[in-house]
Write a structure and sequence with these properties.
The protein is an all-beta fold. Strand 7 and strand 8 form a beta hairpin. It is globular.
Length: 118
């Protein structure tokens, strides 16, 4: 399974941004999909996920109410709608293929950098 996140950029605090992740490969539709982020000098953080069927989502407390994950199985795509961005959201955002409802990572994708200026 191959994954590529894109859509990052430089935005100002309070702005919105939508990240996308394209999944490909024979087994790409066999996994739940998740979003992680890693800020400079910090450990990678699990922030959101959508289960295989698209009906169940996980959102970490640190972004709850501001970030919304979704997926389109027909397009093998995962999305992350990010609103009310804060400077502390600055990080490299990664998508991953994860075990359904367990969220254990099986495959990592390449990340996309989001920079939020104050």
């Amino acid at each position: 399974v191959q994954l590529q996140a894109f859509g990052g950029g430089v935005v100002q605090a309070g702005d919105s941004l939508r990240l996308s992740c394209a999944a490909s490969g024979r087994a790409s539709n066999d996994y739940a999909l998740g979003w992680f982020r890693q800020a400079p000098g910090k450990e990678r953080e699990f922030i959101a996920a959508v289960n295989l069927g698209g009906s169940i989502t996980f959102v970490a407390d640190s972004v709850k109410g501001r970030f919304t994950p979704s997926r389109d199985n027909a397009k093998n795509a995962l999305y992350l709608e990010m609103n009310s961005l804060k400077p502390e959201d600055t990080a490299v955002y990664y998508c991953a293929a994860v075990e359904d409802l367990n969220w254990t990572v099986h495959y990592w994708g390449q990340g996309t950098l989001v920079t939020v200026s104050s």
